[in-house]
Design brief:
Number of strands of chain B: 5
Shape of chain B: globular
Largest sheet of chain A: 5 strands, mixed
Distance between the termini of chain A: 81 Å
Order of helices and strands of chain A: HEEEEEEHEE
Distance between the termini of chain B: 55 Å
Helix content of chain A: 25-40%
Strand content of chain A: 35-45%
Oligomer: heterodimer
Radius of gyration of chain B: 27 Å
Helix content of chain B: 55-70%
Structural class of chain A: alpha+beta
Strand order of the largest sheet of chain B: 2-1-3-5-4
Structural class of chain B: mainly alpha
C-alpha cells in the first residue's frame, strides 16, 4: 500500500473520530440542557434603596425553561411569610421569562419599617415545587 | 449546519497546527522521503508539530505579539510556506525514488495494523463518548489557563510550579484558530489524538528494537503485539482512557514524547543517522516544556539506560566483540554536533524566551528527598500488578528474559545462546552491538520505573508512588509484546497453521479478557443524569459570572458539586478563585497545616468557627449541589437562596450579615 493511501485511511479514521466526539458532545449538551428549570433572582444585589427606584430589580427574578415543552408555572410571592399574590406564568420552551414583582410588592417593601426583610418566591409546576428567597436590606 | 461548520473548522485547525508544520519540517530535514515509514512519518510529524506550536507561540508572545486567531493563522501559514518551499527545494536535487522503500508491511500486515487501530479507537470511544462533555477536575484546571490565553491574548505567568506552559499552548492555539470554545469536546479530542499517536510511538519503538536482531516480519509482529497490548488491552485504565477523560495533559504528552524520543535514538543507532538523535533531543526538550514529572521519570530511566550501555559496551570490548573504534562510532551517533547543538539551542531558548515554571529550587526540593507521606513510600507488588495489568506484567517478565538473552548473546561470544536465538527467534546473522543496546532500552524503561514506584526511598523520590506507577503502562506493553512473541514464535513455527492460529488467539484472548474488565467498571450507569448535572453547573457558573462583581468572593464545593473545577473557567477571575472546599481528607495533612475555613464555611456555616471564617474571607456566594450539604444553609436565618435548578443551588450570605 502506498503512503498516500495509508495517509488517506489514517486521515479518515481520525477525522471520523474527532467529528464524532464533537457531534456527540453537542448533542449531549442539547439533551442535557433540556431537562431543567432554573429560577433565580435577576440581580444578586441584596440592598434596596427606598429613595431610588433604579435598583428595584433586586426583586425581579427569572424562570428559565430549558425543556422542549411550554410550561406553566404557578408563582407565589411572599414577604415576611405573607403572601403578596399568586400568578400563572407561561414560559415557552428553551426560553426564559423575567418577572418584575410589580409596584405593589415594591411599595409594600418600601413602606416597611424593618431594616431587613425576607422575600421569597415559591414556584410549582407539574409535580415539582421549589423556592428561592432573599434577605434584602432596605435603606 | 452550524455544527458541520464547527467540525470543519476544528478539523482544519487540528490538521493545520498539529500535523502540517511538523510534516513540512520533517520533509525539509529528511527530503529523501525514505527515512521514515508511513507510521514513523505520521507520528514524528504530529510530535514535531506540537514542538513547533509551542516554540513558535512562546516566541510570538516574547516578541509582544498578541495571540489571536489572525496572528496564529498568519504565523503558522508563514512557517508552513517557508518549510514547504525549503522541502521542495531540497527535494529537487535528489534522485527520484523508485517505489516506496519505507514500506514496513504487506497488504495483510496493514490490514492487521488497521484492525488493531480500529479496536483501540473503539475501546476508547465506548468509554469516552458518554463523558465527552468537559467536567473533570484536572481538565478544568488546565482549561482555565487555556482560556486565559484565548481571552487575554498572551501567555500566563503562573507563579506556581504545578502547571507548565506546554500543557496549554496547543489547546489554546487550536481553540483560537477554530473558534471552538475550550468548554467543549476540544480537550478530549486533542488528548485522544495525543494518546493515539503515543500508541503508534510504542509500535515504532517495539519494531525498531526488534529490527536490530530479528527479521522485518517478526519486527512488525512484535510492533503489532505492542500496539494491541497498549491500545486494546486495559485501554480505559490510567494513563489512557481515564487520563483522556480526566484531562491529565502532562502525563499524556509524556506518554508520547518518552517512547518517541527512545524510538528516534534507537532508529539513529540502527541507521547511523545523527540527525535522528538531534530530533530525539528536541523531543526531550519539548517534554521538559510540557511536563515535569514525565521529564523527571525520563531522566532516571535515561541514567539507567546510560549505565546499561556503559556496562554492555565494556563487556563487548572485554570479550573482543567490538573494537574501540566501533564503540566510538556508536556513541557518536548519539552524542554528536547536531544533537549537542539542538540541546544548546533549547537551553538558550529556555533562558531567553521562557523558563518552565517548575525550574526553581523549591519545586525541585519537593520532588527529591526522603518520602514525606505514606502515599510516597512505594507500592506493593500486587498494587503494581493491578495498576499495570496482570497480562502485561506476566508477559513483561517473559519479554525481559528474551531481551536479557539478546543482551548476553550480543555482549559475549556465546555461540550457544546465539544458535538458540537463531533457531527459535530468527536471529539475524549480521546482528551487532545495537541488539544489546536497544534491549537495554526496553528493559530499563520498564524495570527502572518499577523500582522507582516500589522503592522510592532508594532513589530519593518524594512523589506519590501511584503517580509514578502509571508510567509503567507503556514500557510494560512494550516488554509484553516481546514476551508474547517469545512464547508464540517457537510454538507457531513448529505446529500446523490452524493450531497455530488457535494458540495465537488463546494468548491474545487472555489479554483481551484481562484487559477489558475495566470497560464494564468505568462505563457510567447514569450517564445522562451526570451530563445534566455538568451542564447545570456550567449554567450556575455563568449566572455567578454575570451577576456578581469581580471583587465579590465565591465558594464552591469540590466534594459534591459535579464539574466544579470548571466554575473558574466561567468566572476567569484568577486560578485560585473561587475558593473551594477540598476533599475532606485533604484537611488532615501531616506535613503542613492546612486552612480549614473552606471546609467549615460549608459544613458548619452558622457555628462560631463558620461565622468567623465568613468574616475573615468575606465569602458572599456559595455554589453547591442541590441536596448535598445544603440543609444547614436552608435552616439558617443568615443565608438567601438566590439560584435554584434541579441539581445546583447558589446561596448568598449578604455582606450586611457578615458581622452576625
Amino acid at each position: 500500500m502506498s503512503k498516500k493511501n495509508l495517509y488517506l485511511i489514517l486521515g479518515i479514521i481520525l477525522l471520523f473520530s474527532s467529528s464524532l466526539f464533537y457531534y456527540q458532545e453537542t448533542k449531549q449538551r442539547e439533551r442535557a440542557g433540556s431537562e431543567y428549570t432554573v429560577m433565580a433572582f435577576l440581580n444578586a444585589n441584596s440592598q434596596y434603596d427606598k429613595q431610588k427606584d433604579e435598583n428595584s430589580d433586586v426583586f425581579s427574578f427569572f424562570i428559565e425553561n430549558s425543556s422542549p415543552e411550554k410550561t406553566e408555572y404557578a408563582v407565589e410571592f411572599k414577604s415576611r411569610e405573607k403572601s403578596l399574590g399568586v400568578k400563572k406564568i407561561e414560559v415557552q420552551p428553551k426560553s426564559s421569562k423575567t418577572i418584575n414583582l410589580g409596584e405593589e410588592a415594591v411599595k409594600e417593601l418600601a413602606n416597611s419599617e424593618e431594616d431587613v426583610i425576607r422575600f421569597a418566591i415559591d414556584i410549582s409546576w407539574k409535580d415539582k415545587e421549589r423556592t428561592i428567597y432573599k434577605k434584602i436590606r432596605l435603606k | 449546519m452550524e455544527i458541520i461548520l464547527d467540525i470543519i473548522k476544528l478539523n482544519f485547525a487540528l490538521f493545520f497546527l498539529l500535523f502540517l508544520p511538523g510534516y513540512l519540517l520533517l520533509k525539509t530535514i529528511f527530503p529523501d522521503g525514505r527515512t521514515f515509514s508511513f507510521v514513523g512519518e505520521a507520528v514524528v510529524s504530529f510530535a514535531l508539530s506540537i514542538a513547533i506550536v509551542n516554540l513558535l507561540t512562546m516566541l510570538l508572545d516574547r516578541m509582544g505579539i498578541p495571540l489571536n486567531s489572525l496572528t496564529v493563522f498568519t504565523s503558522f501559514a508563514v512557517f508552513a510556506f517557508l518549510a514547504g518551499a525549503s522541502a521542495l527545494a531540497r527535494r529537487k536535487g535528489l534522485p527520484k525514488k523508485g517505489g516506496d522503500q519505507s514500506s514496513i508491511a504487506t497488504g495483510k500486515g496493514w490490514l492487521a495494523f488497521f484492525a488493531v487501530i480500529g479496536l483501540s479507537i473503539f475501546a476508547r470511544m465506548v468509554y469516552l463518548i458518554p463523558k465527552v462533555i468537559p467536567h473533570t477536575t484536572d481538565s478544568g484546571h488546565h482549561m482555565y489557563w487555556v482560556k486565559y490565553i484565548t481571552d487575554f491574548s498572551h501567555l500566563p505567568q503562573y507563579g506556581i510550579p504545578d502547571v507548565i506552559i506546554g500543557e496549554h499552548i496547543i489547546f489554546a492555539a487550536v481553540s483560537l484558530l477554530s473558534g471552538v470554545s475550550v468548554v467543549s469536546s476540544l480537550p478530549v479530542i486533542v488528548l485522544f489524538l495525543i494518546n493515539f499517536f503515543s500508541l503508534l510511538a510504542v509500535f515504532l519503538l517495539a519494531r525498531q528494537i526488534s529490527l536490530s536482531w530479528t527479521s522485518k516480519k517478526n519486527s512488525f509482529l512484535i510492533g503489532l503485539l505492542a500496539l494491541a497490548a497498549l491500545g486494546v488491552f486495559y485501554a480505559i485504565s490510567s494513563p489512557q482512557g481515564k487520563y483522556i477523560n480526566g484531562g491529565v495533559v502532562g502525563n499524556m504528552l509524556g506518554g508520547l514524547f518518552i517512547p518517541l524520543s527512545l524510538y528516534l535514538f534507537a532508529k539513529a543507532l540502527n541507521e547511523k543517522k545523527q540527525l535522528l538523535s538531534a530530533l530525539g533531543v528536541l523531543m526531550i526538550g519539548i517534554m521538559a516544556y510540557t511536563h515535569h514529572l514525565s521529564t523527571f521519570v525520563f531522566l532516571y530511566v535515561f541514567a539507567a539506560i546510560a549505565i546499561c550501555f556503559a556496562f554492555y559496551l565494556a563487556l563487548a570490548r572485554l570479550s573482543n566483540q567490538a573494537s574501540n573504534g566501533e564503540i566510538m562510532k556508536k556513541l557518536k551517533v548519539l552524542v554528536n554536533f547536531k544533537s549537542v547543538a539542538v540541546g544548546i539551542g533549547l537551553i538558550i531558548f529556555v533562558y531567553l524566551i521562557r523558563v518552565p515554571s517548575y525550574l526553581n529550587p523549591s519545586a525541585i526540593n519537593t520532588a527529591v528527598g526522603e518520602p514525606s507521606k505514606s502515599t510516597r513510600t512505594g507500592m506493593e507488588f500486587t498494587e503494581v500488578l493491578l495498576s499495570t495489568g496482570p497480562w502485561r506484567v506476566f508477559y513483561s517478565v517473559a519479554g525481559s528474559l528474551l531481551l536479557a538473552t539478546v543482551i548476553v548473546a550480543g555482549a559475549k561470544k556465546s555461540s550457544y545462546l546465539k544458535s538458540f536465538l537463531t533457531k527459535f527467534y530468527s536471529l539475524r546473522r549480521e546482528t551487532g552491538l545495537n541488539a544489546g543496546l536497544l534491549a537495554c532500552v526496553a528493559l530499563l524503561w520498564f524495570w527502572m520505573i518499577f523500582l522507582m514506584s516500589s522503592f522510592p526511598d532508594v532513589f530519593k523520590i518524594d512523589i506519590p508512588s501511584g503517580r509514578i506507577v502509571n508510567y509503567l503502562t507503556y514500557p510494560s506493553a512494550l516488554l509484553a509484546a516481546f514476551g508474547a512473541f517469545a512464547i508464540l514464535k517457537p510454538v507457531i513455527s513448529r505446529i500446523p497453521a490452524r493450531i497455530g492460529i488457535l494458540f495465537f488467539a488463546l494468548i491474545l484472548s487472555t489479554g483481551l479478557i484481562s484487559g477489558s474488565s475495566d470497560v464494564s467498571e468505568f462505563y457510567p450507569v447514569e450517564a445522562e443524569k451526570e451530563q445534566t448535572m455538568w451542564i447545570e453547573t456550567f449554567r450556575g457558573s455563568r449566572y455567578l459570572a454575570d451577576k456578581t462583581k469581580e471583587e465579590e468572593v465565591i465558594l464552591k464545593d469540590h466534594v459534591y458539586l459535579p464539574a466544579d473545577s470548571w466554575v473558574k473557567v466561567f468566572l476567569m477571575r484568577g486560578y485560585e478563585k473561587p475558593l473551594s472546599r477540598a476533599l475532606l481528607k485533604r484537611y488532615d495533612d501531616p506535613v503542613k497545616d492546612r486552612e480549614t475555613c473552606t471546609r467549615d464555611m460549608i459544613s458548619i456555616p452558622d457555628s462560631s468557627i463558620g461565622k468567623e471564617c465568613y468574616q475573615q474571607t468575606s465569602v458572599e456566594y456559595i455554589i453547591l449541589r442541590n441536596g448535598y450539604d445544603t440543609t444547614q444553609f436552608e435552616k439558617s436565618p443568615h443565608f438567601s437562596k438566590i439560584y435554584s435548578s434541579e441539581h445546583v443551588v447558589i446561596f448568598q450570605r449578604p455582606t450586611f450579615n457578615q458581622s452576625l
